[in-house]
Design goal:
The chain is mostly helical. Helices cover 74% and strands 0% of the residues. It is globular and about 45 Å long. Pfam families: DUF1244.
Length: 107
């Protein structure tokens, strides 16, 4: 990517991000907790990163608007339609991941 000019690189990165959002939208069965367990990020993280990027550029973009963009609908609607209750196994895996992450940071 170093051989690309800044505008082209930004366009490619933006296209890849839009494709990631489409992919997540096409796979609503993948729960945020699953993403957190496997990749240490979720749809809410993407929303927070959008808000942070906007803040860095002095652009007003609130968290609810960011979540609506990432989820493709208001978060409450998505949650009601697609979010499942986390299983005890998912919660245990999430806690183990968080503990391992803390141990890496501390050690």
């Amino acid at each position: 990517m170093q051989h690309l000019d800044d505008a082209t690189r930004t366009e490619l990165e933006a296209a890849a991000f839009r494709r990631l959002l489409r992919h997540l939208d096409e796979h609503k069965e993948v729960q945020n907790i699953d993403l957190m367990i496997l990749a240490d990020f979720c749809r809410n993280c993407l929303s927070k990163w959008l808000v942070a990027a906007a803040d860095e550029r002095g652009v007003e973009f609130d968290y609810d608007s960011a979540r609506e963009h990432v989820y493709g609908m208001p978060y409450a609607e998505w949650k009601g339609k697609y979010q499942q209750e986390a299983t005890p196994e998912q919660l245990a895996a999430f806690e183990a991941r968080q503990a391992a992450k803390k141990e890496r940071q501390d050690g």
